[in-house]
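We modelled the chain as a single entity of 355 amino acids. Its sequence is:
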Amino acid sequence: MFKKKFLPSVVVALASIGAITGCSNKDNQSEQISVTDMLGETVTITKNPKKVACISRTTYDLMVAYGLGDKIDGVYGPILENSWTSLIYPESSKHYSYGYENSYELFMSRGVDLVFAPEKYIADDLKSHGIPALNVSLYGNPTFDNYVTFFSKLVTQIWDGEEVKSKAEAWENKVTTAISDIKTELDKYELPKQKVFYIRGDKDRGIGYTDQKGSFTEYAYRIMGFDFVGSTLTTNKPSAEEIVNANPDIFVAGGIYQNKHVQDLKTTEPYKLMDAVKNNKIYTIPNGFTAFEQLSAMTPIFFYDQANKIYPEYFDYDVSNMIKTTVKEYFGTDLTDDQVSYMQKGLNPQGGSLV
């Protein structure tokens, strides 16, 4: 009789101890939390996930910068193909190369417990098969104004380590400081409103490939005092005629194809006949671990770099030193002066073409 009474009591006691221990242990991997993605959809996920797929391009290097590289299972393939990635973050060789669209079976076979997806339809499909997925987009709704630090704050909800929180908050402060510094300076002057056309160069889709209203780039150039031509277009692939009719005052080109696109601007009609091109109002955007104009560890430097180039009479930030310091701080890698120069010119670490 004693044993019959004692054993259940022990089980209850041990269960109680386990419950108390589980509630107090921040590293408990079975704890479920509800988080909201960029589309406002609430998803229940396991806290502190160990195998994350970063399909959305704006998630990978920030995850690494916040000390979460060991929680990443894989990443959108073109990021790994970029020669800057392996130089800046050698551990990237351990990460699986995913496509833009992947079968849910692949994620299941790899034991992925969270996917950062770039599109709603991708996230929805994965969720319908029981795979937690959060949409992290290059676009906000209706604008990107309230989304600049969204992913950073999302990360600190998912991973509760103090180091992660500290690094995320430090990055947020750098971004808000850069924006505030530049806007405060520009507000001192009555500058004419100029139109900027952004050439998106992560793919070779020609000069007529851009971003529209709601994008981070639209937000960034609006903050810097420009009318963003893409925000008035009905498509992100406008015709040459539409671009000419918009008559932008300046062009900015980013991504791995930026130098090709700049050359095309200068040598092909009708672009070479435009005033912005004849006046050499063409500016490029550094390209490293990711394109600087995409949300990343380098976002503060993106603002400083573009302020320097477009408004040289007002700004003279030491962008080269910023790049060196930031790469060392977040990724532990020392870049040479030549490498920093190549990065600023949209070239590979050896000074050659990225494509």
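As a brief sanity check on the tokenised model: Residues 1-28 have pLDDT under 50 and may be disordered. The chain is about 45% helix and 10% strand.
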